[in-house]
Specification:
Layout: E1 4-7, H1 10-19, E2 22-27, E3 40-44, E4 51-53, H2 56-65, E5 68-73, E6 79-83, H3 84-87
Antiparallel strand pairs: 1-5, 2-3, 2-4, 5-6
C-alpha cells in the first residue's frame, strides 16, 4: 500500500526525484531563463514530449517563488506540485 508525503525540503525532493530516475523540467515554451522558470514538472526516464530539462537551481527558484510543495507517493512515481496553502 502506498502512502503519500508532502514536502518543501529541497534535498528530500531532489533525492526522491533522482531515486525514481527523474529530473527537473518545465513545460517547453514557458519561462524565460531569466526571471521565470515556467510551468514546473518532473520528467522521468525518456524525455516526455513538451518538457525540457532545467537546472535544479532554476527549478527550486520557481518552486519557491510560486510557494509550492511536492505531494508524492512513497512507492510509486505519482507526484503533484501543489500550493503550500493547500498543503496545510
Amino acid at each position: 500500500m502506498s502512502s503519500s508525503v508532502v514536502t518543501t525540503d529541497h534535498e528530500e525532493i531532489r533525492a526522491w526525484v533522482e531515486e525514481n530516475n527523474g529530473r527537473p523540467a518545465r513545460v517547453r515554451g514557458t519561462g524565460d531563463d531569466e526571471d521565470d522558470a515556467g510551468l514546473l514538472r518532473i520528467d522521468f526516464d525518456a524525455a516526455e514530449e513538451g518538457l525540457e530539462e532545467i537546472e535544479w537551481d532554476d527549478w527550486f527558484e520557481g518552486f519557491e517563488e510560486n510557494n509550492l510543495a511536492l505531494l508524492h507517493a512513497t512507492n510509486s512515481r505519482f507526484n503533484k506540485l501543489i500550493s503550500r496553502d493547500s498543503a496545510s
